[in-house]
Amino acid sequence: MYGAYTALVYVMTIIGGTLADRYLGQRKAVTFGAILLVLGHFGMAFEGEGSKEILTYQGEEYQVTLNGRGGGSDVKQLIVSDSGSSVITFNEGATQMLIADPAAVGLPASIPTANYTTRIEKEQLFVNILYLSLALIIAGVGYLKANISTIVGALYGLGDPRRDSGFTLFYMGINLGSFLSSIFCGYLGIVYGWKYGFGLAGFGMLLGLVVFVWGQKWLDGHAEPPDAEKLKKAVFGPVNVEMACYLAGLAIVAFSMLIVMNSHLVPDWFVLSLGIGVFLFLVAYAVTKLAGVERSRMFAAIYFVLAQIPFWALFEQAGSSLNLFTTRLVDKTIFGTEVPAPVFQALNAGFIFIFAPIIAWMWIALAKRKMEPSTPVKFSIGVFLVGLGFLSLVGGMKATGEAGMTAVYFVFLIYWVHTMGELMLSPVGLSAVTKMAPARVVGMTMGAWFLYSGLSNYLAGVIARGTGAETIGGQLTDVVAAKATYASVYTNVAYVAMAIGVVMLLISPIIKRLMRLDLMKEDPAHALAGEAELGQPGAEGVHPPHKGQPAE
C-alpha cells in the first residue's frame, strides 16, 4: 500500500503539470493542490480506537498488543484475556510463544506457534477515512509538486549560471520543512499518539498555503494562466474550463482512493507497461514534434527522467523497509535516551539543510574554474552513492553478529551517504529537465520526471516487500532470520545500483553532447534566437538572463 501511495503521489503530477501548462497556470494549480493537501493531512488525524490483532487458541480468543508505540526496546508484546495480561516472547526460530505470567491470562507457559491463529479486526470507517486522506494528498501533490518546481525554473533565464544553485537552495527550503516535521510529528506520534503527529502535519500544510498566497506578489507574473479568457469558456452547463480542471482533481481523488484500497490487486506488469508507454510517448513526441537542437535536448531530458529510477528505488526505502529496520534491529539509544525510529527520517532533511548551501557554492566555484562535473556525471555519482550507502549499513549489521542490534551510527552513515547522492541528482535533475525541455511542454516533462519518480517508488515497494519478516503484535518473532533477509536484499540492490552508476558514468559524454550546452555557453540569448531562425520554437516563453536577483 505504501508503494502504491507513493507511486501515485508522483504519477498524478503529470496530470497536474499538463493542466497547469495548458489552462490553469502554475499559481492556481499550486493553490488548489495545497488546499487538497491541507484536507488530506487533517483527515489523517482521525484514527478511531485502532485495529486489533486477535489470537485464537483452543477456541478462546485473546488480544495481542503492545505496551507502547514505535518498537523501542521498552515496548513489549502483550497477550490480553478477560482475567489480565502478560508479556510474551518467542524462542529462537519462533516455534514457541513464551508467556511470562501464564496464570494472569489462564494459558500455559509456552504454546507452539502452529497451535494458534491470528487475525486483524479493523474499524472500517476509520480505515476508509485513511484511504480518503491518502487520496486527497495524492491529488494535492499532483497539482503542486511539478508546478512549484516549474515556477522556480521560470525565475531564471535559460543560460543563467545561478540556475543549479537556485534549485539547490529551493531544495534546501523544502527539506527544512521535512526536517522539522520528521522530528516533531514523529515524536508526537510515538509519545502521545499518531493522530497528534498527523494533526500537526495538517497545521504545517495550512501554514504553507498561507505563505504561498501571501508571497505570490514576488512571482512577477511567471505563474499565470497561459490564456485567462480560455479559463472562462464553458465546457458543459455552468462548468467552465477552470472549474473542469478542479473537478479533474476530485476525479483523481476518487481514482486514487480506489487504487490504494486495492493496491494488492495491481500487478507489477501493469506498472512496468505504464513506464514503457510513457517512455514511448516522450520519444514519439521528440521525433514527430521537435527537430534540431530542441529534439536533441528533449532526448537528454528523457535520459535524466529515466536515470533517476535506480536512485529513488533504493533511496525511498527510508520510509518503509529502512524505517522498519531502524525500529526493529537498531540500538537507537543516543546519550542515554532512546530516540523514536521515525525521528531518524529527519537525518536526510537535516543533512540537506547543512550541505545543500555548501554544494550550491561548490558548483559555482567549480564552474568559475571550468572544473564543474557535467549533469550526467553528477547523476552517475548519485546512483553509485545510493548503493554504497546500503553496503555501509550491511557492514554495520555484520559487525554485530547474527542477532545483535546494529549500532545507531550506521543509520547516521547511510542517511548521510544517501543525502550526498541526492544532492548530486535531485536538484540538478530538476534544473536539467526545466532547462532541456521546450518551454511549451516543460510542465508535461516535469510531470514525466515525477511520474518516473512514482514508478521508482513502486519499485521501492517491491524491494521493501522482499525484506518482509514475520511479526506478531507488530514485533519480530525471529530476529536472526529477519536480519539475514535485510542483509541479503540490501547487499544485492547495492551492487546493482553501483554497477548502473558506473555504466552511467561511461555514457555521460554522449548525454552531454545531446544537451547542446555549447549554444548556451556562447550566448544564451543568441542561441535562442538561432533556434527560432532554424524554425525551432525554443525561445517561446523563455526569459533571457538578467542582472540582480531571480525574482526581480
Automatic annotation (TrEMBL):
Cellular compartments annotated: Cell membrane; Membrane
Pfam family, one: PTR2
CDD domains assigned: MFS_DtpA_like (cd17346)
TM stretches of this protein: 6-24, 29-46, 129-157, 169-190, 196-214, 269-287, 299-315, 346-367, 379-397, 403-425, 493-511
InterPro entries for the chain: Dipep/tripep_permease, MFS_trans_sf, MFS_Transporters, POT_fam, PTR2_symporter_CS
Membrane topology per record: Multi-pass membrane protein
Location (main, coarse): membrane
Keywords: Cell membrane, Membrane, Transmembrane, Transmembrane helix, Transport
Region (Disordered): 530-552
UniProt family annotation: Belongs to the major facilitator superfamily. Proton-dependent oligopeptide transporter (POT/PTR) (TC 2.A.17) family.
The protein's name in its UniProt record: Peptide transporter YePEPT
Organism this protein belongs to: Durusdinium trenchii
